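Translate structure to sequence.
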């Protein structure tokens, strides 16, 4: 018995050779099966837009069956199913908004401006009590140290060296090597 090809979309098997496979893949039944498979995963908003632009299928409304099936160019959705799609779209939008609000609330809790200002005022008050009248900036307070792995390496390039304690001196006009 020879090799057989199994099509996941159509749930069919047939002898596997290039002619049979090409014939199957170009067949109408296979194309319909692929479209119906991917229609399941379509965004509800896109599905609603497509279905609301189509006219209702009279044959499907009268008998509940249409000879064209999924390849019919008219809509087989009832007004109730269209409303259900609209509700699902609204539900997804609401979920998305609540997720954004939760994320924003978490950020607001962890980075509170009031906490930062209180910390800054407390630091300023302790500096004044110590007698340090000069306003200290955060740039002066930050110190950089080399990681232990780099401390043993001699002649590091300037890009890997920590900046000087007072920071770099800015000049009005820098000459970039012409």
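Result:
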């Amino acid at each position: 018995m020879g090799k057989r090809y199994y099509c996941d979309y159509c749930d069919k098997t047939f002898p596997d050779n290039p002619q049979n496979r090409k014939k199957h893949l170009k067949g109408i039944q296979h194309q319909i099966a692929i479209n119906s498979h991917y229609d399941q995963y379509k965004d509800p908003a896109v599905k609603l837009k497509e279905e609301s632009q189509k006219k209702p299928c009279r044959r499907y409304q009268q008998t509940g069956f249409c000879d064209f099936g999924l390849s019919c160019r008219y809509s087989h959705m009832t007004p109730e199913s269209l409303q259900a799609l609209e509700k699902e779209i609204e539900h997804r939008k609401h979920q998305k908004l609540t997720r954004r609000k939760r994320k924003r609330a978490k950020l607001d809790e962890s980075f509170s401006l009031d906490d930062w200002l209180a910390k800054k005022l407390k630091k300023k008050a302790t500096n004044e009590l110590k007698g340090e009248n000069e306003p200290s900036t955060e740039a002066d307070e930050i110190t950089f140290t080399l990681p232990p792995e780099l401390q043993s390496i001699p002649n590091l390039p300037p890009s890997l060296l920590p900046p000087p304690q007072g920071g770099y001196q800015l000049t009005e006009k820098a000459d970039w090597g012409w």
